[in-house]
Amino acid sequence: MLRSLWTLIRRDVSLIVMRRQDVLTVVAFFILVITLFPLSIGPEPDKLRTLAPGGVWVAAALASLISLDRLFADDWRDGTLEQVALSPQPLAVAALAKVAAHWFSLGLPLVVLSPALGYSLGLEGAELLVLALSLLLGTPVLSLLGAVGAALTLGVRAGGALMALLILPLYAPVLILGAGAVSEAMFDSAYTAHLSLLGAMLAVAVPLVPVAIAGALRIALD
Amino acid sequence: MHAQTDTAQPPATLQAQRLACRRGDEQLFSGVGFTLEPGELLFVRGRNGSGKTTLLRTLCGLSEPAVGTIHWQGQPIRRLDDETRRQLLFIGHRDAVKEELTPLENLRIHLGLRNENTDEETAWDALQRAGLQGREEVPVRYLSQGQRRRTALARLLVSQARLWILDEPLTALDRRAVAWLFERIAEHLEVGGMVVTTSHQSIDGLPEPRILDLD
Amino acid sequence: MTARSIPWLKFTAPPNFYVLAERLTPWLWGVAALFLVAGLYVGFFVAPPDYQQGNSYRIMFIHVPAAWMGMFLYLLMALYGAIFLIWRIKMADVMARAIAPTGALMTFLSLWTGALWGAPTWGTYWVWDARLTSTLILLFLFLGYIALHAASDDREKGGRAASLLAIIGAVNVPIIYFSVEWWYNLHQGVSVMRADGPSMAPSMLAALLLMTVAFWVYSAAIVLRRAQSETLSREARKEWAQQAACGRLTRDTRERAVAQAQQENAVSESGGQA
Description:
The structure holds three protein chains of three kinds.
Chain A: H1 2-18, H2 20-41, H3 45-68, H4 73-78, H5 80-86, H6 91-120, H7 125-152, H8 159-186, H9 192-221
Chain B: E1 14-23, E2 26-36, E3 41-45, H1 52-59, E4 67-72, E5 75-76, H2 82-86, E6 88-91, H3 103-114, H4 120-129, H5 145-153, H6 155-158, E7 163-167, H7 175-190, E8 194-198, E9 210-213
Chain C: H1 14-46, H2 60-87, H3 90-122, H4 130-151, H5 155-188, H6 202-234, H7 239-245, H8 251-273
Helix pairs in contact in C: 1-6, 2-3, 2-4, 2-5, 2-6, 3-4, 3-5, 3-6, 4-5
């Protein structure tokens, strides 16, 4: 089983590397959304600083959403998904492998970039660390939840917009905790509670959400 | 319907009972039943839209029939254990060939997914025999439709599965490739394999099939 | 397997359900109207004005039942979705789909009346209060279900996808609710929603209960009615549905249709045990 999962992860990563413009598009989108904040609010550092945690987190959530749009679509269209469903390992585990590959190639760059963007909005020192840490714990949950939406909207009219409607409400708790952690750090209060809750969410999501993804994929394949 | 004998080993048969499938609100077919024994070839015939593809996808457990059951080696098709699942190979209308990758990579990924242990040598050999010599490392995007199809069919050469379910395997194949495929199917049947297939083209040259008419 | 012999499953056969709904709905409409009139009368003429809010609090008699109904209907919809996914009873999907618009309406109504209540009480139509925010998210969950169900060309497939979404949403509703609550408390300290004091005049309580019953029964009636028309459109090609659409469904046709449906089930079941 490990071998087939490794095959799947490696294949997905190498396909994404081949289409590296996709990674660039998502990263550029992430940066652009953050650029919109100073442009729309004004350059005053104080204002920007208060908005920074939410701004970076909203941008990350949107970037995660648009990057997940095609997570299963290509494999569904060319029949690979059928082969994955018929292969010996459980579909839920295969789904987890695909989400992991996706997160490594498209989610992790956002996490790595986030301190720089946080800095540009006026966050400092430990706050940047908390920002990166909260994204590190939170974006995998976003990827998992988004993958459910991507699977549910396979082969459906108006997939992208519909996916946003289905998934963004489910993003709310992660966003609250993630942005909350950074805000707490700004007021020098205890942000560990937020981070632990985010970690708990991740720990619950990793075994459970793939089952839902697999269910949605089976419906799409039927 | 064949009488079943009680043996410790589950019979290596594909059994379908009273299948009915629907697409949307439309009933495609009903009352389809058969038992496919080792060495048998089942040819599904029907006009466009009669549900051939749906039946084949149902037989390998992707779609769920509205009515009826399917058993492969005595296990319900949607609850196969890993080993039994590996005994089934499906090549669908959409052939799961990635355009960005080369035939060799495609084949390797296929093997990796199914967790089948085949060395490099066999993979190269299979692609050669499938008529892709010299094209093993050209991305499929630059190959013709027929060569793309051959990439998919090369799986038959490395497969250890007993049951092949092939949806329209002849599409886009030239005469030589068709002859090659028929030969390969005949070999598979001889060693006790089973094949379910459909085609709109002539199947002269295949061993005598059992015919299932959906019309 | 044994579940199929339980009598209440009789109504999973569409013709039986149709006839049951046909018989029930007039009564339900009547009861709903009765309770609505009684509730509005007690609410507007019997219950005393609030010592702080005067008469504006009376919108609570619509607001609170609507909010309860919205939450309850979402859970009920998810439950029907689960029944559909597990036992493949098609009527469960019909019911879930019939519930969704009413649930969305109730949720919207509770937001709307909440805004109208908020304006005189604390001077604004909208605050990002914990309850308002999570109700808004609930509304989006309903809309997502409706949109996903409608987006698929295949009704069966769309129903299964939407049912799965409803279940995921139902698991998430408490998480969303608590995280929003927590978020709000961190930002605001004390909730402004604590306007209704601990003591409530008995007539106020009576009006609230009457209105709640009215909302329940109204929801049941409208959901059954919608499920009826959905059943007819799904079974449009069958004889019983065509007769029923003209209002001339005979007992004979219905029994034949039920027998046929049961036969189909029996086939798939005996196959399942073979």
